[in-house]
């Protein structure tokens, strides 16, 4: 896949706007760019400006609360991913689609960032980790405590989710009453 410079992208997009091209196939063929790529550039330029056409070295980070708000909005309003992305100023609508998919599969916990490689389990290594001698009862208790702590964290997030949903629904209801 070829990387296009910002100048080249801008030149092509401005040419498309100048010619008021409805069918971008001709222009895409002329510049040896796929039609979908050109349409994407035009859309991004119109919605978000020049900034959207630049290649970012780092991905933007979104908090769990922001993701949750956006996903709940998407599910509640049934708007398209593009419309939601435009409303929340997110350049790639596929980002929201990924969040919705994770949310449907794993709930709120699916929206957490699991960035990086998972830790490897040492197997048949020359260096063996020092093991503390534990009785079976102590190990079982520690495992149970860890499991309960994870459940508590999950339920805290779930309560937070329901509070947020309740707030959104209450706000929507009050705006409906004001409009009537």
TrEMBL record:
Ranges of residues in domain Insertion element IS150 protein InsJ-like helix-turn-helix: 8-61, 67-119
Entry superkingdom: Bacteria
Residues forming coiled coils: 131-165
UniProt KW keywords: Coiled coil
Gene Ontology molecular function: sequence-specific DNA binding
Protein family according to the UniProt entry: Belongs to the IS150/IS1296 orfA family.
Protein name: Insertion element IS150 protein InsJ-like helix-turn-helix domain-containing protein
Species annotation: Mycoplasma feriruminatoris
